[in-house]
Amino acid sequence: MDNLFMKEKIIGQFGQEFFDAVEQKTDSLYYLNQGDREAKFGKTDNSIYQFFYCNLDESWFEEGDSSKVIYYFEIDEKGRIENLSIKKHTLPEQKIVAFGSELKTLVTEMPDWSPAIDFGKPVRQGYTFPLILSHNQRNKYCN
After folding, report:
1. Dist. CA 115–CA 125, nearest whole Å
2. What is the pTM of this model?
3. Which fold has domain 39-142?
4. Which long-range contacts (CB under 8 A, 24 or more apart) does 102-107 make?
5. For residues 45 and 9, what is the distance between their CA atoms, to the nearest angstrom?
6. Where in the chain is CATH 3.30.2420?
7. Three-state SS at 72
8. pLDDT digits over 72-118, tens only?
Protein backbone atom coordinates (compact mmCIF):
# COMPACT_ATOMS: atom_id res chain seq x y z
CA MET A 1 0.00 0.00 0.00
CA ASP A 2 1.26 3.45 -0.75
CA ASN A 3 0.84 6.63 1.28
CA LEU A 4 -1.91 8.04 -0.95
CA PHE A 5 -4.07 4.97 -0.41
CA MET A 6 -3.57 5.19 3.37
CA LYS A 7 -4.28 8.92 3.36
CA GLU A 8 -7.56 8.38 1.52
CA LYS A 9 -8.60 5.61 3.93
CA ILE A 10 -7.81 7.72 7.01
CA ILE A 11 -9.64 10.76 5.64
CA GLY A 12 -12.60 8.55 4.68
CA GLN A 13 -12.74 7.07 8.18
CA PHE A 14 -11.96 10.09 10.36
CA GLY A 15 -12.29 13.18 8.14
CA GLN A 16 -9.93 15.76 6.66
CA GLU A 17 -9.70 17.85 9.85
CA PHE A 18 -8.45 14.87 11.87
CA PHE A 19 -5.93 13.95 9.18
CA ASP A 20 -4.62 17.53 8.99
CA ALA A 21 -4.18 17.69 12.79
CA VAL A 22 -2.26 14.39 12.89
CA GLU A 23 -0.11 15.41 9.93
CA GLN A 24 0.72 18.76 11.58
CA LYS A 25 1.67 17.06 14.87
CA THR A 26 3.80 14.49 13.05
CA ASP A 27 5.57 17.17 11.04
CA SER A 28 6.30 19.19 14.19
CA LEU A 29 7.78 16.12 15.94
CA TYR A 30 10.06 15.41 12.99
CA TYR A 31 11.03 19.07 12.80
CA LEU A 32 12.01 18.93 16.48
CA ASN A 33 13.81 15.61 15.81
CA GLN A 34 11.46 13.77 18.19
CA GLY A 35 9.40 11.66 15.77
CA ASP A 36 9.74 7.89 15.91
CA ARG A 37 12.68 6.76 13.81
CA GLU A 38 15.28 4.08 13.31
CA ALA A 39 18.83 4.58 14.57
CA LYS A 40 20.91 6.47 12.00
CA PHE A 41 24.59 6.72 11.23
CA GLY A 42 25.98 9.67 9.32
CA LYS A 43 24.19 11.92 6.88
CA THR A 44 23.24 9.44 4.16
CA ASP A 45 22.09 5.83 3.91
CA ASN A 46 25.53 4.98 2.52
CA SER A 47 27.47 6.48 5.44
CA ILE A 48 27.78 3.19 7.32
CA TYR A 49 28.98 1.39 4.18
CA GLN A 50 31.50 4.13 3.53
CA PHE A 51 32.76 3.93 7.10
CA PHE A 52 33.39 0.19 7.07
CA TYR A 53 34.51 -0.27 3.46
CA CYS A 54 36.90 2.68 3.60
CA ASN A 55 38.35 1.86 7.04
CA LEU A 56 38.78 -1.91 6.90
CA ASP A 57 42.30 -2.96 6.00
CA GLU A 58 42.53 -3.45 2.24
CA SER A 59 43.94 -6.96 2.69
CA TRP A 60 40.41 -8.20 3.54
CA PHE A 61 39.11 -7.39 0.07
CA GLU A 62 39.39 -10.05 -2.61
CA GLU A 63 39.43 -10.08 -6.40
CA GLY A 64 36.68 -12.03 -8.15
CA ASP A 65 34.75 -14.23 -5.73
CA SER A 66 34.32 -12.53 -2.41
CA SER A 67 33.66 -13.45 1.18
CA LYS A 68 30.54 -12.31 2.95
CA VAL A 69 30.12 -11.37 6.58
CA ILE A 70 26.83 -10.61 8.33
CA TYR A 71 27.20 -9.10 11.74
CA TYR A 72 24.87 -7.77 14.37
CA PHE A 73 25.19 -5.01 16.91
CA GLU A 74 22.98 -2.87 19.10
CA ILE A 75 22.82 0.91 19.24
CA ASP A 76 22.08 2.00 22.79
CA GLU A 77 19.98 4.94 23.94
CA LYS A 78 22.97 7.29 23.62
CA GLY A 79 23.94 6.11 20.11
CA ARG A 80 26.86 3.89 21.16
CA ILE A 81 27.42 0.46 19.65
CA GLU A 82 27.34 -2.58 21.90
CA ASN A 83 27.12 -6.37 21.62
CA LEU A 84 28.85 -6.80 18.26
CA SER A 85 28.74 -10.35 16.95
CA ILE A 86 29.29 -12.06 13.62
CA LYS A 87 26.16 -14.02 12.69
CA LYS A 88 27.23 -15.64 9.40
CA HIS A 89 30.32 -15.60 7.25
CA THR A 90 32.05 -17.28 4.35
CA LEU A 91 35.56 -16.41 5.53
CA PRO A 92 37.96 -19.28 6.19
CA GLU A 93 37.74 -20.25 9.87
CA GLN A 94 41.39 -19.30 10.46
CA LYS A 95 40.60 -15.69 9.42
CA ILE A 96 37.34 -15.04 11.26
CA VAL A 97 38.91 -14.29 14.66
CA ALA A 98 41.24 -11.69 13.15
CA PHE A 99 38.40 -10.18 11.11
CA GLY A 100 36.15 -9.99 14.19
CA SER A 101 38.94 -8.28 16.09
CA GLU A 102 39.35 -5.68 13.35
CA LEU A 103 35.58 -5.07 13.28
CA LYS A 104 35.56 -4.47 17.04
CA THR A 105 38.44 -2.03 16.71
CA LEU A 106 36.62 -0.13 13.96
CA VAL A 107 33.43 0.00 16.01
CA THR A 108 35.30 1.60 18.93
CA GLU A 109 36.55 4.29 16.52
CA MET A 110 33.12 4.83 14.96
CA PRO A 111 31.36 8.11 15.76
CA ASP A 112 28.16 7.72 17.76
CA TRP A 113 24.89 7.08 15.97
CA SER A 114 21.67 9.03 16.37
CA PRO A 115 19.69 6.59 18.53
CA ALA A 116 16.34 5.15 17.57
CA ILE A 117 13.39 7.12 18.92
CA ASP A 118 10.15 5.50 20.06
CA PHE A 119 7.32 7.63 21.44
CA GLY A 120 9.72 10.56 21.70
CA LYS A 121 12.34 8.72 23.79
CA PRO A 122 15.69 7.21 22.75
CA VAL A 123 15.60 3.40 22.71
CA ARG A 124 18.01 0.53 22.07
CA GLN A 125 17.86 -0.97 18.58
CA GLY A 126 19.46 -4.01 17.00
CA TYR A 127 21.10 -3.66 13.59
CA THR A 128 22.17 -6.39 11.18
CA PHE A 129 24.77 -5.36 8.65
CA PRO A 130 26.11 -7.29 5.63
CA LEU A 131 29.59 -6.81 4.18
CA ILE A 132 30.77 -8.24 0.88
CA LEU A 133 34.55 -8.30 0.94
CA SER A 134 35.32 -7.49 -2.69
CA HIS A 135 37.34 -4.74 -4.34
CA ASN A 136 34.25 -3.81 -6.39
CA GLN A 137 32.24 -3.15 -3.23
CA ARG A 138 35.09 -1.21 -1.65
CA ASN A 139 35.53 0.92 -4.77
CA LYS A 140 31.80 1.59 -4.92
CA TYR A 141 31.89 3.37 -1.55
CA CYS A 142 35.47 4.69 -1.29
CA ASN A 143 36.10 6.54 -4.56
Report:
1. 8
2. 0.70
3. TolA/TonB C-terminal domain (3.30.2420)
4. 102/56, 102/57, 102/60, 103/71, 106/51, 106/52, 106/55, 106/56, 107/73, 107/81
5. 31
6. 39-142
7. strand
8. 999 999 999 999 999 999 988 888 999 999 999 998 898 989 999 88
